[in-house]
Structure formats: structure tokens, C-alpha cells
Specification:
It contains eleven helices and twelve strands. With 334 residues, the chain is an alpha+beta fold.
Length: 334
């Protein structure tokens, strides 16, 4: 039996520049953090005493004989790509809802790969895990996804991730005093809008408009460098980060009409009127979680103004995907 624990993420700056179609020509970068909210995957070999060969438990329960019969796309894609022949039971739980802008789909894929490889005593490095998950999502599942979420899930941390035109990437930790880091994280308020969406569908529309959004993406890429400079410089201020996040959100809304909607705009305006310095809808857009930068003295007012939404407290995860229970059943045929 194996249980993997894989973090979700909060991406603050640079979203939209982590797609291969973009960064292979222009380069890209993102700034954000993995958070201490997790996706859990329980995986074990299923004894051969049932009518079904595989048991998949998530919001549904699937009992199937063949991998090709599995309806959950990521489970089907991973098991098919790894050519798994052993019967498996896979059980998924999470701290936060799926399709909410926190990279949950990639956390699931990374966590499932990590657990299955561990089950067969085949451990992978963080880089290998995120590259494998990215390939499966983009090439096997044919989803329109970027490359940052798999890296946050595998590596964890508070980082600036650079994407190079040759297709490679580097993970650069943000090294700042603990007091400054804690002050910054404490200034971020995370609210769940209640709207869910399939990020791949939202992103597909945005990526079809690369030429029309080119100026905005270049602006967003430059904002990453400004964010790093503010966070690591001698004149750090929450106010400047908040203003930068507001500017980034205005630029992101230029990607396409599906980034935001009137309900999201109303929530954003209400938070700003109550004291939020800046904010954004996390992920590709269309729904999910919103993050705001708010001074401590204004947080109660923002919380009260958005009282119909769930506010989630969080910290930074520095481990990335990890195996928390490891009871291998011996090597098998993968």
C-alpha cells in the first residue's frame, strides 16, 4: 500500500507564459508557491478475487476489468501509459475542491505517478515526475495545459520558475528573511468563488488568441521580474506587491473574454472597495479561487464583504509530492 501527498499551488505572476506554444518562442516565467493543501492518492494491488480488476474511488466509484474502461481521464491515461497489468485500487481525497484554479489536476497526475512508481519500487526524481506528468497531460490526454502546475506539485516551495526557449526550465527559490516571507504570506487572502470550470477548455480559447494577447503576455512576463525584485529587495512592501498583482490581473483579462465574467468582476471590485490592494482569479480563469493582497488591518473588512465565500488560510509547502505511507508489495510488471 502506498499513499502519496501532493501540494496544490498559488500562482501569483506570469500565468499564461508557461505554455510551450508561447515560451518556446518568447521564453516565460512564473512566480508563486506550493501550499499546504494537498491531494492524497492511496494505491495498492488489488487481490484477484473480484469480478473487477481495478477499483477507482474519487467523486465516483469505478469497478472495471480493463484500463480502457476507466472513465477518469488521468487515471486511464497514467495506467495506459505505464502499461500497468496488475489489478489496482486507487483512492483519491483532497483538502480543496477540484477545478478551482489551484493546479489540482496536475497535483493528481503527479501524485498518482509518484504512488504507482513507489508501489513498484521505482522511485523518480522531482524533475522526472514533473516531466512525466507534463508529457501525459499534454501528449497522452491532449489537454491544453501549461508547464508550471506539474513543477509546483513535484518540487513544492516558493519559487520563480523560468521557462527557456529550448524547452527546459529552472526552479529558483525566493530567498528572503523568514519574517518577510511570513508577512507576505499573511497578506494573501484566498477565497473560493464557488464557480468551477475545466481549465483546459478555458486555456484552449486563450491559446487560440496568442497573437491578439502577445503584448499582454510580454507585460505579464515583465511583471514576474518586478515581483521578484520587490520581494527580495531592500524596499519590500506589501503595497507594491498588491499594486503589481492588480496590474497583472488587468493584463491577464486581455487574453480573452473567458478569463473573467460579471460575477467575478463584482467580487473583485467588492474586495478592492473593502481594502484589497490587488488580486486575481487563480488558474486559467472562469472560476475557482481568487487571491487578494490585503494589509492585516483591512482583512476583517474584506472577509466581511465577501462573507458568502469560503476563506482558506494556508502556508507554504516545501516538500512537493512525497510518499507518506510506503509498504511496497514487491516489484511487479509496469
Amino acid at each position: 500500500m502506498i499513499i502519496s501527498r501532493t501540494p496544490f499551488r498559488v500562482s501569483l505572476f506570469g500565468g499564461g507564459t508557461d505554455y510551450p506554444e508561447w515560451f518556446r518562442e518568447h521564453g516565460g516565467a512564473v512566480l508563486g508557491m506550493a501550499i499546504d493543501k494537498y491531494c492524497y492518492l492511496f494505491v495498492r494491488k488489488l487481490p484477484p478475487f473480484f469480478d473487477h480488476k481495478h477499483r477507482i474511488v474519487y467523486s465516483n466509484i469505478e469497478l472495471v476489468r480493463e484500463v480502457s474502461e476507466i472513465k477518469h481521464p488521468a487515471v486511464r491515461g497514467v495506467l495506459s501509459d505505464l502499461a500497468v497489468t496488475s489489478g489496482l485500487e486507487i483512492h483519491h481525497d483532497a483538502d480543496l475542491p477540484a477545478r478551482s484554479g489551484l493546479g489540482s489536476s496536475s497535483s493528481f497526475t503527479v501524485g498518482l505517478l509518484h504512488a504507482i512508481h513507489a508501489l513498484y519500487d521505482e522511485m523518480r526524481t522531482k524533475r522526472e515526475m514533473c516531466l512525466e506528468a507534463t508529457r501525459i497531460e499534454q501528449k497522452v490526454l491532449n489537454e491544453c495545459v501549461g508547464c508550471q502546475d506539474q513543477i509546483w506539485a513535484a518540487y513544492g516551495g516558493f519559487n520563480c520558475i523560468d521557462f527557456k526557449t529550448d524547452g527546459s526550465f529552472s526552479v529558483n527559490p525566493i530567498i528572503i528573511p523568514a519574517e518577510r516571507r511570513d508577512q507576505f504570506v499573511a497578506s494573501i487572502m484566498l477565497f473560493f468563488t464557488g464557480f468551477s470550470r475545466l481549465a483546459s477548455d478555458v486555456a484552449k480559447v486563450q491559446m487560440s488568441n496568442l497573437e491578439g494577447s502577445e503584448e499582454a503576455r510580454h507585460q505579464i512576463r515583465g511583471i514576474v521580474d518586478e515581483g521578484v525584485s520587490i520581494l527580495t529587495g531592500s524596499n519590500f512592501s506589501v503595497e507594491e506587491i498588491g499594486k503589481l498583482l492588480h496590474e497583472s490581473w488587468l493584463q491577464k483579462k486581455r487574453f480573452s473574454d473567458n478569463v473573467s465574467n460579471p460575477q467575478i468582476d463584482d467580487l473583485y471590485d467588492a474586495a478592492r472597495e473593502s481594502g484589497a490592494l490587488g488580486g486575481k482569479l487563480l488558474g486559467a480563469g472562469g472560476g475557482g479561487f481568487m487571491a487578494f493582497i490585503v494589509r492585516p488591518e483591512n482583512q476583517q473588512a474584506v472577509r466581511e464583504r465577501l462573507k458568502n465565500l469560503i476563506c482558506v488560510d494556508f502556508g507554504i509547502d516545501y516538500d512537493g509530492s512525497k510518499i507518506v505511507v510506503y509498504e511496497p508489495g514487491g516489484r511487479g510488471d509496469v
